[in-house]
Amino acid sequence: MASIWDALAVTSHRDRDLIEHEAARAGIQQELRATHRETAEYVEGYSISHPDELEYLMASGQIPGHPAWEHRIDWSNLLLYRKRLLTMLAHLTKAGTHA
After folding, report:
1. How many Cα atoms sit within 13 Å of 42 on the Cβ side?
2. Measured between alpha carbons, how far is 8 from 6 in angstroms, rounded to an integer?
């Protein structure tokens, strides 16, 4: 049974590995855009640039802990996820230059 990648390669007369590479790149770029949108909501909503600043605002009593604490955790996780996505994209780019 042929995979979707094999079917696309045959249909488009293109190399399967190239199609997989392009699909992975597009998926990562889409995730990066979504991550950017989500982090921008926190930046705009709290008028700060980093989740550590949010922690300071909570600790100093300038804002209530709920829902800010959950936002701080989510924002921090988004930054870690973004870093992993950028690493994967860099590996794909490097692999693409050696193909």
Report:
1. 24
2. 5
**Rounded distance, CA 71 to CA 42, Å?**
8
Residue 60 per-residue DSSP state: T
Average pLDDT on 84-94 reads: 93
72: which 2 tokens? 């701080």
Residue ranges per domain, the chain? 19-98
The predicted model scores a pTM of: 0.85
CA triplet 14, 18, 23: central angle to 5 degrees? 110
pLDDT tens track for 31-71: 999 999 999 999 999 999 999 999 999 999 999 999 999 99
